[in-house]
Amino acid sequence: MKLSRLASIVLVSTFAFAAVTLAPYAEDKKKTAAELEKEKALQNPYPNDFGPDTIDVSAYPKNHQDGYKLLKVRCAQCHSAARPLNSRFVEPDVAKDKKEAAVADLKKSQPDLFKDGSSWQVEASIWERYVKRMMAKPGCKIEKAEGKKIWEFLVYDGKRKIGANAAKWKAHRQKLIDELKTKKPERHKELADQKDL
């Protein structure tokens, strides 16, 4: 009798130990690809992530308000909406075949946009490229038409980063970079070394 009681205790203890020890692995198996992407994003922040995750789009055209709403739901599956909303990326809001010329015009009219890579990264199709890249990630549930609306919103939204708003935007970006440096110095150094702040 004592042996079977001891065997029962050992058996129950073994199952309890296994359940506690293996629980985190079981949880990982239950996580979706989007949840795993979000964990990765949280562990590897950008300055953008320290900014607001909402903006006032009430004065934006209706189609861009719709793109913003999609961004808040779809993009936020894998990272905070703050990441694209506080990004340094600017893509000219002109027809696709005129984007390169628009970038060239900005180089002449607003040369400061091209001196500081941590405040602005102006390219002809940068948002288009990034939205497509995000859509290709595992677990991304953005349909092609939704991706287009998000891309169009991000292009339009770039207007608040340049022109008369450039100095305000530069100060905003510097504040975010400083916050990353204070809170995550190793990540700041990594991004600075890669020229990816």
* Overall tally of structural domains: 1
Q: What is the CA-atom radius of gyration, in angstroms? A: 23 Å
Poorly predicted ranges: none
Helical region count? 9
Shape: globular
Strand content: under 5%
Q: Order of strands in the sheet with the most strands? A: 1-2
The counted number of beta strands is: 2
Characterize the largest beta sheet: strand count, sense, and whether it forms a barrel.
2 strands, parallel
Question: H/E series, N to C?
Answer: HHHHEHEHHHH
**Helix/strand structural class:** mainly alpha
Compute the separation of the termini in Å: 69 Å
Question: Which percent range fits the helix content?
Answer: 55-70%
Mean pLDDT: 86
What would your notes on this structure say?
This protein is an all-alpha fold. The chain has one domain (36-193). It is 60% helix and 2% strand. Strands 1-2 form a two-stranded parallel ribbon. Strand 1, helix 5 (99-109) and strand 2 (121-122) form a beta-alpha-beta unit. Helix 8 crosses helix 9. The protein is globular, with a radius of gyration of 23 Å. It starts with a helix and ends with a helix.
List the helices and strands and how they pair.
Layout: H1 2-30, H2 33-43, H3 62-74, H4 82-85, E1 89-90, H5 99-109, E2 121-122, H6 126-135, H7 144-157, H8 166-183, H9 185-193
Parallel strand pairs: 1-2
Helix pairs in contact: 3-7, 6-7, 8-9
